[in-house]
Amino acid sequence: MNPIDLTASAQFIKRIAVVRFSALGDVLLAVAAVEQLQKYFPSAEITWFTSPQAILILEGLPNIRFVVVEKPRALGDYLKFYSKFKHEKFDLVLAMQASFRINLFYPALHAPIKIGFDKTRARDGQSFFTTHAIASVESQAITQRHLLDSFFAFGEILGVPRSEDVTWHLPISDNDHEWAEAQLKNLAKPILLIHPCASKAERNWPESRLLEVVSVVRKWGCGIVFTGGNSPHELAVCERLS
Fold this sequence. Notes:
Elements: H1 6-9, E1 15-19, H2 24-40, E2 45-50, H3 55-58, E3 64-68, H4 75-85, E4 92-95, H5 100-103, E5 113-116, E6 132-133, H6 139-142, H7 147-156, H8 174-184, E7 191-194, H9 207-219, E8 223-226, H10 232-241
């Protein structure tokens, strides 16, 4: 896989497809990388394929067309997706998610250039469905790099410079701000925010340690806010920590 010659490619990159469904934290990181692309390709039409969960925080981002798709669970889901996009063509696909279920979407997105992760991070055979890969990172160095670095690498292979001023212009309404301020106004300051449940259980910190943190912070007189989804498991964890 050779580096992309931007001088030869930039002139025909008018339609860009971005694929990132989950997890929500990763989707938020991808926003910064996509905003960098918008600055570098201001006339390009960007289509972002994402999930019903992620669109709740993405909808309203300017100059981006969103395609909301449930993660496929059966062959019929793929056939429906392939049929819907068989006549749509892109100049570039940024395969920002590598998982078995999502990798099978990439052949349906027609484009001469499809950029995926490097061989260390292109899980579940993603490299079979892409034409180029972002810069390779030694496996032992991956744990020392932020995921945001890998998302910016998708732009770097196209010649998009890394900005020192990373921005996220999330579409948060005045009503959202007012609601948040109402929840926080009576809490002691400073406030500690705890997000106890990750998307995968193996990433969670033990509850016993979180309880220790909560106990110490309360002794300091700080306010505490628990964040997360509304699943029974997450609600139960927050209740126990409260």
